[in-house]
Design brief:
The chain has 384 residues and is an alpha+beta fold. It has 14 helices and 9 strands.
Amino acid sequence: MRHRNSVFADVVKLIPWGKFEKLVDEHGTDDLVRSFTTRHQLLALLCGQLEGAASLRGIKAVMLSHRARLYHAGAVVPCRSTFADANRNRDYRVFTGLFEPMLGLATGGFRKAVGDVVRLVDSTSLRLAGIGAHWARFSTEFSGLKVHVIYDPDLGCPVYHLVSEAKINDIVVAKRMPIEKGATYVFDLGYYDYRWWAKLDEAGCRIVTRFKANTLLREAKEQPLQPGSRVLSDRIGFLPERLASNRRNPMQAPVREIVVRTETGKELRVLTNDLDAPAEEIAELYKQRWQIELFFRAMKQTLKITHFLGRSENAVRIQVAVALIAFLLLHLLRQMSKAKLSLAELTRLVRANLMHRKDFTRLREIQTPPPIDSRQLTLNWGST
């Protein structure tokens, strides 16, 4: 009988191991290592991520119960203390560096014109408690971190991420993020900074965000509305000429205010530097921001990123990076699958079959038994 690998062994084959080994050599994370290598560490973390294990002991227990099927994946059962030391001490840049080549595989060469690229920018906060969380101290009672993400709604996955302490403002991190010339950037009020907007505008980027309630539009001129549109008003004008410190506002280019009514009846003042696109298009772009919120929900509820295996800064950065790599593996697996599945459905199937020897591209077909003919069941019952 032909040998078949476990689902886990087949899934981890999708990782570009050659590039990972180059990162290991570059950062020297396997220097003087006897047994538990950086590759073993990544495999153990991915096993825990895909299995939904919430602790180092949980990962060890899962791998120990399937020891015989770890060979073809190249994994080993970790000692808990050795595992904890690796998460605390090994350079997290090996794992964050793997994100980019994994993204290239998951997107499958998908290309769009520069002007059609949309980037959603946001962050999510995660609570961190216990010994070792002092680096993320926010107040006397709270420690936490933020995961800052640039998300592509067309690809359905993040394209950039960064971890910071919870006390760091979103705009401070945004100014460190790379700017793609000509792309559309959609963000909320946490990124309300005229200097950053001016840099985006200079790079030819389209900005879509919200006005603060106290921001007035100077020299506003009304634009005609399309009949039957949900847009309440469309005006072109200028932002305040001076900042609060009486310095000149660097964002001197004209901007546009589009007031729309949401499905819940709330009125939103949407700001953009695109003076020509239809108002409905701008409103739809801002509506896409909800997709990054759904991504954060999936990371917290489906991939359980709220349960940390270690509390040191290094361990947290490694775990966030591995969680995003697991997301890209599932994203790639969903593309390869013959059935259309949501991320939650696919995660449940992978979790249920992770160490079973099955075709990982046909999990749904294998999981779902063929329908039973009730007449045949009656005949079989009657014949016994």
